[in-house]
């Protein structure tokens, strides 16, 4: 299956360090920078869709036509992975597409993925929590970094060497609504029903002028 080429975009910190230098113990020391961003998902049939918060505070991808009842968000990201990535509703985007946001999204809610090491095959929907304590079991709200335009997760290597690895295991699963996907984290990176691997970037899709 061609899409599997996108699975596991690994970059070891030993080989390349996007935003830091190694300290004496070999750990990457990151320069902390916080910025406002929009995040876009790319994958098979998914050409740069924005990430939305649902009324259930879970994360979705949607085409403009399927974005009703979802909350468009603006991200505040710490590119070093130290702090959680937070979101606030983007009222401009909501008005532009007359969505009916029913989200209970609290401004400043943290993005999380479920990557529990105790269940290495975790395949669960990402979402947003107003405080880390209310995140689901196995969720993590830190470790998100950018590698150029790519959103990655910094994980400690399983061998306990202290080396860190940049991992991207974001996936999308179709829903009963055309143009609406759930945003998933696929810890093991294994094939899943009705799902495709994603690349998440801070850059918007190039809009064709020829439409
Ligand atoms: C992509 O869209 C086409 C046309 O709707 C569909 O036939 C195909 O199954 C989709 N592929 C995936 C991986 O969803
Ligand atoms: C949005 O929510 C309203 C009210 O709950 C519902 O009637 C409508 O079908 C929803 N629209 C979509 C696209 O889910
Ligand atoms: C809010 O969304 C609009 C429309 O999508 C976009 O142009 C704008 O940059 C967003 N605002 C922020 C602060 O990201
Ligand atoms: C928003 O809600 C209003 C009133 O419930 C409804 O008429 C309209 O179709 C909804 N818009 C969308 C995009 O779901
Ligand atoms: C944030 C968002 O989804 N904006 C969309 C609103 O609708 C227009 C027109 O359909 C799209 O071009 C925007 O991308």
Automatic annotation (TrEMBL):
| Keywords tagged on the record | Signal
**Superkingdom, taxonomy of origin:** Eukaryota
Task: State the signal peptide span.
Answer: 1-16
Asked if Signal is a keyword of the record, the answer is: yes
Give the organism the record lists: Sporothrix curviconia
Q: What is this protein called?
A: Cytochrome p450 protein
């Amino acid at each position: 299956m061609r899409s599997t080429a996108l699975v596991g975009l690994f970059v070891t910190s030993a080989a390349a360090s996007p935003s830091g230098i190694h300290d004496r113990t070999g750990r990457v020391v990151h320069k902390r920078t916080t910025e406002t961003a929009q995040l876009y998902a790319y994958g098979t049939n998914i050409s740069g869709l924005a990430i939305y918060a649902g009324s259930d505070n879970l994360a979705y991808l949607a085409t403009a036509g399927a974005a009703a009842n979802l909350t468009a968000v603006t991200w505040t990201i710490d590119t070093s992975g130290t702090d959680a990535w937070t979101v606030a509703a983007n009222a401009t985007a909501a008005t532009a597409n007359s969505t009916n946001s029913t989200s209970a999204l609290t401004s400043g809610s943290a993005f999380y993925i479920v990557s529990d090491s105790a269940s290495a095959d975790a395949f669960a929907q990402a979402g947003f929590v107003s405080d880390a304590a209310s995140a689901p079991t196995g969720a993590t709200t830190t470790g998100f970094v950018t590698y150029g335009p790519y959103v990655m997760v910094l994980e400690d290597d399983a061998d306990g060497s202290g080396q860190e690895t940049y991992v991207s295991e974001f996936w999308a699963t179709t829903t009963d609504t055309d143009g609406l996907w759930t945003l998933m984290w696929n810890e093991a990176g294994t094939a899943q029903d009705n799902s495709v691997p994603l690349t998440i970037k801070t850059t918007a899709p190039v809009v064709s002028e020829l439409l």
